Amino acid sequence: MNQDKAYYQNLLRHVEYTQLETVGELLQIELAIYDIRKFLQEMRQIDEYDNPRLDNLKLGLRQLRKEHEILSHEIGDLELDISHAKFMIDILSRDKDDE
């Protein structure tokens, strides 16, 4: 049982670390999206929004939004893994206390 509990404790630490890294990436993407949207808004105000040179920027914004969606789903999956590991650690701790 101790090996099982140690496995889940190691898994929990690994998944929590991965979650922190993923949240960091997500925050960087959100900041980039904010900066691009702010710049595009400024271009609208000076009537340069339809400028063909901004097409790559708009494409990049779409790609960042897709990446944001993917990372958001990954964070949800990681939260499930964390909940599962904590649950198993709790169950294995109870089994040890019952003995």
Provide a concise account of the structure shown.
The chain is an all-alpha fold and 99 residues long. It has two helices and no strands. The chain has one domain (2-98).
What does this structure look like?
- By secondary structure, the protein is mostly helical.
- The chain has one domain (2-98).
- Helices cover 89% and strands 0% of the residues.
- It contains 2 helices and no strands.
- It has helices at residues 2-45, 55-98.
- Helix 1 packs antiparallel against helix 2.
- It is rod-shaped, with a radius of gyration of 22 Å.
- The termini are close together.
- The mean pLDDT is 91.
- It comes from Spirosoma validum.
- This is Coil containing protein.
| Number of strand segments | 0
Helix content: over 70%
Instruction: State the helix count.
Output: 2
The oligomerization state is single chain
| Computed structural class | mainly alpha
| Overall tally of structural domains | 1
Please trace the helix and strand order, writing H or E for each element.
HH
Low-confidence stretches: none
Which radius of gyration do the C-alpha atoms yield?
A: 22 Å
**N-to-C CA distance:** 11 Å
Mean pLDDT: 91
The coarse overall form would be rod-shaped
Strand content is under 5%
Main sheet specs:
none
Protein name: Coil containing protein
Keywords: Coiled coil
Coiled coil: 54-81
Organism: Spirosoma validum
